[in-house]
Write the structure tokens for this entry.
Amino acid sequence: MALIVHKYGGTSMGSTERIRNVAKRVAKWARAGHQMVVVPSAMSGETNRLLALAKELAPASLTEAYGRELDMLAATGEQASSALLAIALQAEGLESVSYAGWQVPIRTDSSYTKARIESIDDARVRSDLQAGRVVIVTGFQGIDDQGNITTLGRGGSDTSAVAVAAAMKADECLIYTDVDGVYTTDPRVVPEARRLHTVSFEEMLEMASMGSKVLQIRSVEFAGKYKVPLRVLSSFTPWDIDLNEEAKSGTLITFEEDENMEQAIVSGIAFNRDEAKISILGVPDKPGIAYQILGAVANANIEVDMIIQNISKDGKTDFSFTVNRNEYTKTMSLLNDTVLPALGATQVVGDTKICKVSIVGIGMRSHVGVASTMFRVLSEEGINIQMISTSEIKTSVVIDEKYMELAVRALHKAFDLDQVPA
Ligand code: ASP
Ligand code: MG
């Protein structure tokens, strides 16, 4: 007997029929003798629907002012789906109870709409499990120390599930979703993309932060910190498939580099169009310019990703960096209004039509020349690299958005990701 946490995404919970399917699947696991905690997302589209209603009443730019109410509102989505799942389980003949975040409680800080989990009290859930109940815990939400309901950021149910699994010391946390695992890249871009049987936690972290949308990045950080065994698998298999077969399906996120790991140098290609590039031209090249530019940006709470400073000519240099696309306008006006005049720079130019493509793999640690293969492949395709950044296990480039698919396909092929490793 094991203690298992299942997490079901919005699509898996998308209709009463699908909720019934989830209930049947969970019942199968419970009847096999496992203690089951289930963390559902809201029914698909529900969180968007609720937040759109708020937008009709007040401008999105005031989000911070009414963050508390947004969380009150958005948290109802998970409360509804959780109750429906408990009802479906009871209709299947199982004892089941659902809890909102505050009833567990799942304690968070007070940063509305992006709260962080601080602690989870497992006593109530544990006593239900001991009494033979399947326990449903709402995803995405918690309560702060003032008793306010908080939410964890979009996609936050993944994090709820991993945090519950960590707090309960679950044997495994299974993330059921509408894809059947983690792929070498997005199969919509490269049809030859393969599902990875295992992926290391560090690679998953890079892939999640580089644009792979399979797991919320914070959930991966959590899994790493507490060593939660995590598996991503499909909720669209028939609910009555053999449990042992199901338990081995999908992609397992591993913490050790064992012999069974697929020994590819590059494990995946991630890409995203979430960023925009901004350059400040004609900056006097003297100590403190990076601080003046990026300090101002950081003070405005804008996150910077890639950074480049050009070699200087005649005492002037160009300084470029990327920010999230939805902070582009805000960053441009900040630079134009304050930083440009203070620095005596010539001009601020921006480009939103860029994308970032990354190769990720722990094998890069022990193999030289992986990045240069990437650069060669891009040059053979005639794709100009605008920015580069590297870490031990990834190399990212910024290129023109219109070459994104070409770049991803060429790299996927060049690194043999369509071949099953020997
Ligand atoms: N319902 C929330 C969202 O749509 C949380 C989640 O689904 O993970 O972002
Ligand atoms: Mg999700």
